[in-house]
Design brief:
Oligomer: heterodimer
Structural class of chain B: alpha/beta
Strand order of the largest sheet of chain B: 6-7-8-3-9-10-12-11
Largest interface: A-B, 56 and 51 residues
Structural class of chain A: alpha/beta
Number of helices of chain B: 11
CATH architecture of the largest domain in chain B: 3-Layer(aba) Sandwich
Shape of chain B: globular
Largest sheet of chain B: 8 strands, mixed
CATH superfamily of the largest domain in chain B: P-loop containing nucleotide triphosphate hydrolases
Number of strands of chain A: 13
Distance between the termini of chain B: 63 Å
Strand content of chain A: 15-25%
Strand content of chain B: 15-25%
Distance between the termini of chain A: 45 Å
Radius of gyration of chain B: 21 Å
Order of helices and strands of chain B: HEEEHEEHEHHHEHEHEEHHEEH
Radius of gyration of chain A: 21 Å
Chain lengths: ~350, ~350
């Protein structure tokens, strides 16, 4: 168990809205072991970012968070004081955001901001902090690191800024890094480089990495385990090979059908679509959250909450009462199966 | 609108070779003077530098490249929104310079990336879609309404959304509004600048399907600008790869994806992350730094990042090499340069 870095059990996040309570995250559970990359994937509004923010305790003030268990290295991180949390944040766990320009302070130099993390959390002389900053900037592939320390964020390109953010997250040698869409704002060529770097650093520093993204391509390539979220719930989880090789939830299958793959999808062929829209999460949803858009829906789907259940292939879990039957039948639409 | 059409093998045949090209750029350059700071001389920046591109009627051409490579500047010139500094543009055989903007707008229309900022938040859906009709004039209010409803049906927008505002729509619905607005005057050509980049994948596929249907039903020509190579591969008949203001490779989609020749094209293709587990994250072997366009590298503009550079790359500017396999600007394929380098 010593390798367990993060445990999230039954996480709930809700936000008050004029028309009631928005249940943005609903019973989300997952864990991260040392050396693992866990990808949380889903479309806008599925609750993936709020899940990340609630681990860091950075939720908007009005949001309410509850969990059966939320522990970092075996220590609970719910209900602890703000000082304890501030000590953990940036020290034991760090976060990398989508847009590095908004998460770097434009008025301070790169050097100032890098050193701050270490000076804040460790009793080290400034010279030592500077040394580590230079070392890490070089490690993340920034040339002329010493000169960069004197530069301001606006003097760097988007790719370089994201590298600085990664170096900053590594300053204290954290056990867990949470990266929320770290490459979405970057060019494809830079995206590949940054992901390559993250994967390398994760192995080198032996950390746990939680990667939040909407990009299934990124997930398939980098994830040890995948958590697919839809409308506030985990609908499928397993290794990348399990989830992408044999997707069992109709939503996961539908998402994969939407994506053209050079050499596999025929040019001009119609791409798969998921009809309809994400349900409103205000109030409670009876039964399956995906029922309204599912091609395989039957009456039972809407009757009661659907549990996340293990499948015959080990750690692979799916939230669909028809998963086994659909898998056997090769996912034939509802009419022909019934 | 039919939604059942499967593969369309007639795509290539539909591109009409006898008619003049729908859109043609001949040696087009666009220069900006960029301020270097207070009291310092301005420096020229060549955003687009000697681009030749010809798009046949009914063809879908994909334009790919990193941000800052000049894709959007080229698109703005093709839309007649910005004159080139030199070179000429032709639309349907006529020179674009001197044409009234309104006439250009009848022929070419844009669809932009971000349907959140490209729609006026204070206008209703019906008013947004009908605006091009009012600009061109000669259409009664009743006629306008009828045509807006027709258009909404064509792009899959429910009639009840007519009086709604953009803020009440989802991202996919907004992009449908943008497409309806682009098509209401029945243009011949649509320039789509990252049409699905801001959308979720399940919505992206709906919009791509819609663009395919509309192309078939209305006989449209597309220029598809995208950084998503998988999308380009799926949609385009031909692809042009742009790097620092120049097209460095141009050929039909199958050839480009099967046998990329320019090292930059290779690197771009390598960075496509498809949802196939077990392949890992590719190492593109591209140096991190995108060069400063104000301080263009000597010789081949790609040489500082190129894994396959050799002797003449940092001194001699590569020339466009045209063959049956398409156009490429790279010394690796220039026998004269290679011979000289070996000597």
């Amino acid at each position: 168990m010593s390798d367990r870095i993060l445990t999230v059990e039954g996480l709930e996040v809700s936000l008050p809205v004029p028309s009631g309570t928005l249940n943005a995250v609903h019973g989300v559970s997952f864990h991260v072991d040392r050396g693992e990359t866990v990808c949380i994937v889903g479309e806008s509004g599925c609750g993936k970012s709020l899940t990340a923010l609630s681990i860091m305790d950075l939720l908007p003030k009005r949001a309410r968070r509850a969990a059966r268990e939320l522990t970092l290295l075996g220590e609970p991180i719910v209900g602890v004081s703000e000082t304890t949390m501030a000590d953990l944040r940036g020290n034991r766990m760090a976060m990398i955001f989508q847009e590095p320009m908004t998460s770097l302070n434009p008025a301070y130099t790169i050097g100032n901001q890098l050193e701050e993390a270490l000076l804040r959390h460790r009793k080290v002389p400034r010279a030592k902090a500077r040394e580590r900053a230079i070392h890490l900037l070089e490690r993340v592939g920034i040339t002329a690191a010493e000169q960069r320390l004197r530069q301001y964020p606006h003097q760097l390109s988007g790719g370089l800024r994201q590298r600085v953010m990664i170096a900053m997250a590594l300053m204290t040698g954290p056990d867990l890094i949470i990266a929320d869409e770290p490459t979405t704002a970057l060019d494809v060529t830079i995206q590949a480089q940054i992901l390559h770097l993250l994967a390398e650093l994760q192995r080198e520093f032996h950390m746990g990495l939680v990667l939040i993204t909407h990009d299934l391509g990124v997930v398939a390539r980098i994830a040890t385990r995948v958590v697919v979220m839809y409308a506030g719930q985990v609908v499928e989880t397993g290794t990348a090979a399990e989830v992408f090789g044999a997707p069992r939830h109709p939503y996961t299958r539908g998402l994969l059908d939407c994506i053209p793959i050079p050499g596999k999808t025929k040019r001009g062929e119609r791409l798969g679509t998921i009809p309809g829209m994400v349900p409103s999460l205000v109030g409670q949803i009876q039964g399956c959250h995906f029922a309204g858009r599912c091609n395989y829906v039957i009456d039972e789907c809407r009757a009661a909450p659907i549990p996340l259940e293990a499948t015959p292939d080990g750690g692979h879990e799916v939230r669909c009462i028809r998963a086994d039957e659909l898998m056997r039948g090769g996912f034939q639409p509802a009419e022909s199966v019934a | 609108m039919s939604t059942t059409a499967a593969v369309r093998p007639e795509i290539k045949a539909s591109a009409d070779t006898a008619a003049p090209p729908m859109l043609e750029a001949i040696d087009v350059t666009r220069m900006f003077m960029v301020s270097q700071g207070f009291m310092r001389a301005k420096k020229p920046l060549h955003a687009v530098n000697g681009v030749n591109l010809s798009i046949r009627q009914g063809e879908v051409v994909g334009l790919v490249g990193e941000s800052g490579c000049g894709k959007t500047t080229l698109a703005r010139m093709l839309l007649g929104l910005m004159p080139p500094s030199s070179g000429s543009l032709k639309i349907d055989g006529q020179p674009l310079t001197g044409m009234r903007r309104r006439d250009v707008a009848r022929l070419v229309q844009p669809v932009f990336q971000d349907p959140y900022s490209s729609l006026n938040p204070r206008k209703s859906v019906g008013s947004i879609i009908g605006l091009p009709l009012r600009v061109q004039g000669g259409v009664s209010g009743e006629e306008e309404k009828k045509r807006v409803y027709e258009m909404m049906e064509l792009v899959g927008l429910a009639r009840r959304l007519f009086d709604n505002y953009p803020s009440q729509l989802s991202g996919g619905q907004r992009q449908r509004v943008a497409i309806a607005r682009a098509l209401i005057n029945r243009p011949r050509m649509v320039i789509c600048d990252e049409p699905t980049s801001a959308l979720d994948v399940s919505v992206q596929s709906q919009i791509l399907n819609l663009l395919q249907d509309l192309r078939r039903d209305l006989g449209l020509t597309y220029l598809l600008i995208s950084h998503n190579l998988a999308v380009v591969e799926h949609m385009a008949d031909r692809v042009a790869v742009m790097y620092l203001g120049r097209i460095v490779e141009q050929t039909d989609t199958d050839t480009l994806f099967r046998n990329p020749r320019h090292p930059y094209t290779e690197a771009l293709l390598k960075s496509v992350l498809t949802p196939e587990p077990g392949l890992g994250v590719p190492d593109t072997q591209l140096g991190a730094a995108y060069p400063n366009p104000l301080n263009m590298p000597s010789g081949c503009r790609f040489h500082p990042r190129c894994a396959r550079r050799f002797g003449p790359c940092d001194t001699i500017v590569p020339r466009p090499l045209v063959s049956a396999a398409g156009m490429v600007e790279c010394h690796l394929y220039d026998d004269d340069v290679k011979k000289e380098a070996a000597a």
